[in-house]
Amino acid sequence: MTNTPTERPLVEIRGVNKYFGEHHVLKDIDLDVQRGEVVIVIGPSGSGKSTLCRSINRLETINSGEILIDGQKLPEEGRALAQLRSDVGMVFQAFNLFAHKTVLENVTLAPIKVRKMDKKTAEARAMELLTRVGVQDHAKKLPAQLSGGQQQRVAIARSLAMDPKLILLDEPTSALDPEMINEVLDVMVELAKSGMTMVVVTHEMGFARKAADRVVFMADGAIVEQASPDEFFTNPQSHRAQDFLSKILS
């Protein structure tokens, strides 16, 4: 981690509540993410993990509380929200690549349109990133010509192309065949080692142990506990976490 004790957290979440109808999905969430920190959010299905992740760049609106990115309160709409989203990368479960554009076009689109980067510079940067995630040989292919693991690595490169302050990854391996999961996790581990600030929702406990600075455990819409990976996996404090780990690590 690169932060100093006096530096303001990159992400500040204060008293956040979210409802879907009568269902209370996020309950009084308080969470800071420091610059350069890798926070991995785990917990049973339906615990609010993905909703929390999507709330950080306002893909989900919140009912109360506040979220600040780099000291700025999350804008509600318009140009300010678009600017925020350009600074916060998002990698989804389902890749969300443009099917009719090549891999290279997918990665260069936002830098050209949003950052006003010239095409030649954007393409050179895109090729660097595609090389970094190991899919440079597929630059001229359409997404449908790639495996799921390759498409997800392109999606990660696309997020990095905007030079974001923060990357959110919402269960990025859950839609992949088992043999493709490790190739994406390897890219994510390298990203974590590079000092990128990351919030990752995942079921991959091995990745959490290897890459996390901090594990946040959620259940029933609340943060139940948070600790270093070593502390959490060897000595969970809550009965809820003990029960969860006994089921998935047995």
Automatic annotation (TrEMBL):
UniProt keyword ATP-binding present: yes
Keywords: Amino-acid transport, ATP-binding, Cell membrane, Membrane, Nucleotide-binding, Transport
Protein location: Cell membrane
Membrane topology: Peripheral membrane protein
Sequence ranges assigned to domain ABC transporter in this UniProt record: 11-245
One Pfam family per UniProt: ABC_tran
CDD domains in the cross-refs: ABC_HisP_GlnQ (cd03262)
Source domain of life: Bacteria
InterPro entries from the UniProt entry: AAA+_ATPase, ABC_ATPase_HisP-typ, ABC_transporter-like_ATP-bd, ABC_transporter-like_CS, MetN_ABC_transporter-like, P-loop_NTPase
Reaction(s) the record says it catalyses: a polar amino acid(out) + ATP + H2O = a polar amino acid(in) + ADP + phosphate + H(+)
Catalytic class of the enzyme: translocase
GO molecular function, one term: ATP hydrolysis activity
Enzyme Commission (EC) number: 7.4.2.1
GO cellular component, one term: plasma membrane
Protein family according to the UniProt entry: Belongs to the ABC transporter superfamily.
Entry protein name: ABC-type polar-amino-acid transporter
